[in-house]
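note to self: the first set is below, dont mix up w the second
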Amino acid sequence: MNKLAVFDFDSTLMDGETIEFFADTIGIRQQVAEITREAMEGRLDFFESLTRRAALLKGVKQAKIDEIAHNLPFTDGASETIKSLKSMGYTVVCFSGGFRNATSYAKPLLGYDAEFANVLHSKDGILTGLVGGEMMFSDSKGKMLERLQCILNVSKENTIAVGDGANDLSMFAYAGTRVAFCAKEIVKKNADIIIDEKNLLNILDKLK
């Protein structure tokens, strides 16, 4: 019997939002916060929010972004929870509306099996402000989860999805166990398990 656990990255496996760490370091926090606020208020969808925030990074050195991405704080219990799930027979995958320079770096450190995220385009070592990847839209996570279930022959009942934000809701539709981790209210309303303490090990207790 195949089993699959899918985790969001920002504010789930990682303690914070990758784009906000970038913004703080290069001095564009206010602009990024305004775009995020518009998205939360429903005036921007995820694609618009992502592309507008990526555009603010134009001209930044790729090496600087990589340095920030490689020093992000992981959420307490992340690696231990992934290790435990894998020992229980789960394939563990990370879905992120953020960026692969963070999720790829974290993969061997946290131990998940694969990651799907977006890529900040660069030319001659400088960001162009463009972005592409597998997680560009509000429904990307759900569509990717459905594909993985087909490839791995995993049923909805044997799928766990863990996330905190509105763009995680699309994968909840394909998961038999839906975990809201320190999540927005709209996510909690669609979850089977709600974790409000910032420690991923609490998920294991709920699965017993």
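second set (the one i keep forgetting abt)
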Amino acid sequence: MNRIKTFVTGAALALATTLAMPAAAQESSYKRGTVWEVGRIDVMPGQFENYMDWLAGQWKQVNELAKADGIVVDYHVLASTNPRAGEPDVILIIEYKDYQTTAQREAFNKKVGAMLQQDNRKAGAASAERVKMREQMGSVQYQEMILK
């Protein structure tokens, strides 16, 4: 009887130890990857070529600087083939290496300001001027989950 009691007690202890293992000790089925920002743009009638010119100029220039600095992995401009009412005409996708701290964002923004020769006021005014070409419909961020 003592042998059975000892066996049952030992088995219960082993089971309890296994169940009590911290989650960190268990291997995850994924790892976190890059961060994707997706912007939705409604281009105003007759402004598609003008907006594409701006994207091919200043927008691309800023993203190329971010790539050179190791902040951006890649970026893409997608056009909706047949957007329905309420859907974007253009989708802007930027793949970031990782999330940035406030200090990192501010340092990069200073670099961009120097490259474009504009301060925050001029950048805000330039963004307001682009309202003639487009309406920003919002953006969202995603983080890739790389399955193991």
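remember for set 2: The two ends are 47 Å apart (CA to CA).
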